[in-house]
TrEMBL record:
GO terms for biological process: polyketide biosynthetic process. PANTHER family: HYDROXYMETHYLGLUTARYL-COA SYNTHASE, TYPE III POLYKETIDE SYNTHASE B. This is Chalcone/stilbene synthase N-terminal domain-containing protein. It holds the Pfam family Chal_sti_synt_N. Belongs to the thiolase-like superfamily. Chalcone/stilbene synthases family. GO terms for molecular function: acyltransferase activity, transferring groups other than amino-acyl groups. Transmembrane segments: none annotated. Residues 25-219 form the Chalcone/stilbene synthase N-terminal domain.
Amino acid sequence: MSLLVVGSQIPVPAAATLRGHGFGRVQRPDGPASVLGIGTANPVNCMRQEDYADYYFRVTRSEHLTDLKAKMKRSISQKSAIKKRYFHHDKKLLGAHREFLDRAMPSLDSRQDILASAVPELTAAAATKAIAEWGRPATDITHLVVSTYSGAHMPGTDHRLASLLGLAPSVPRTMLYMNGCSSGSAALRIAKDLAENNRGARVLMACAELTLTMFRAPHVGVIMHLEF
């Protein structure tokens, strides 16, 4: 989970520059967008990558799939650059939601109910750090851009995050859902455009994911889920 505060650091000229430059020119800053603060946050449950395969097949009661477990260790655990994995879910949560492990049971509603609060809370933790590094109050944020693959709620993560941070209701919000691995790049592009086309803009950009969205028991024919 990462947060950026984006804006232009070029001083704002006097309003008198309106004459001779055109309205559009005055609306834009004189310099490119800059990153003013960065904050990150992770779920509390952490596991080292080399221990993950044993944990995953144990907690999903799939230790009989020895060949698949060996393939996961060989192709994912050993060859990826991942050092640690962070999770919102733990053994207690998985025990209370059998549907997360049983592929025959519907689980989307249960996952969405958990993500509805967990994603905004994680996002707010990172945002607080980014705003602190920036050194100005959250009320100075002028725009909010949020991207996530974890849920598709209405009101969305952007609305809940704005409430947690105490942003003004008038702050324009942009919510990006289901952009997959490119979601961070899409959010950065929008934040950059907002900062470079609105004089004095201070854009808070958030990109948040929780693997609870895809976590489930392994299946021989669906290797992709082993990554989560």
